Amino acid sequence: MKILKIDHVGIAVNSIEDGKNFWAETLGLHFEGAETVAEQKVTTAFFPVGESEVELLESTSPDGPVAKFIEKKGQGFQHIAFRVENIEAALDELKERGVQLIDQKPRIGAGGAKIAFLHPKATGGVLVELCERS
Ligand code: ZN
Fold first, then answer.
1. In percent, how much of the chain has pLDDT > 70?
2. Separation of 84 CA from ligand 1 center, angstroms?
3. What separation in Å is there between the alpha carbon of 107 and the centre of ligand 1?
4. What is the mean pLDDT of residues 25-49?
5. How far does the centroid of ligand 1 lie from the alpha carbon of residue 127, in Å?
6. What is the reported pLDDT for 15?
7. How many C-beta neighbours within 10 Å does residue 116 have?
8. How many Å lie between the centroid of ligand 1 and the Cα of residue 98?
9. Dist. CA 96 → ligand 1 center (Å)
10. Domain that holds residue 98
11. I need a surface site. Which of 66, 98, 106, 123 has the fewest CB within 10 A?
């Protein structure tokens, strides 16, 4: 599998609007706009930083994965996303190695990227996302 770079770092927040105070106003990062991914019950906001981005995630529903994450662990770092060349090939390779996956197949995330999550049980506790952008 070829990992190209850290695509983004995902941070769970109660409110993107409040999050903007720190990430955009205090740190001066550019707010690229928000996008709701209905299937994941999440609204995401991206702030580019050089070659990578910060992604804020706000749940759209109390039973969404981000809401559940915040309930358990509080707001803060949620996942790291690696850009890969070929996400299908990467998932096949991980399956061959017996790595526990959340997504057996890629799905479409924010910005139309193909994404898939590895299970934190398989990674030492870190939620890892693979993503491929064309
Ligand atoms: Zn992400």
1. 100
2. 13
3. 12
4. 95
5. 10
6. 97
7. 23
8. 23
9. 24
10. 3-132
11. 98
